[in-house]
Amino acid sequence: LLYRFLTDGGKIMPRRKTFVCAKKQRELARCVKRARQMNLIPYMGKLPQFRRPDFFAENA
């Protein structure tokens, strides 16, 4: 689920692209950072198995 909110390079997407409120964006950032520390998400994920689905491209 968290991969939807990451770019192909592994960065967290900004609010204007994710369309979530400020409170949820902060929560999302904390969750992504925690998952990175737990080694569930790579810090830089350009490998094919870490690509995010094109969820936001359909809604744009």
From TrEMBL:
Family annotation (Gene3D superfamilies): Ribosomal protein S18
GO CC terms of this entry: cytosolic small ribosomal subunit
Pfam families for the chain: Ribosomal_S18
GO biological process, one term: translation
A molecular function (GO) term: structural constituent of ribosome
UniProt entry keywords in alphabetical sequence: Ribonucleoprotein, Ribosomal protein
PANTHER family registered for this protein in UniProt: 30S RIBOSOMAL PROTEIN S18, SMALL RIBOSOMAL SUBUNIT PROTEIN BS18M
Family the entry assigns: Belongs to the bacterial ribosomal protein bS18 family.
Name listed for the protein in its UniProt record: 30S ribosomal protein S18
Species: Guillardia theta (strain CCMP2712) (Cryptophyte)
Native organism taxonomy: Eukaryota, Cryptophyceae, Pyrenomonadales, Geminigeraceae, Guillardia
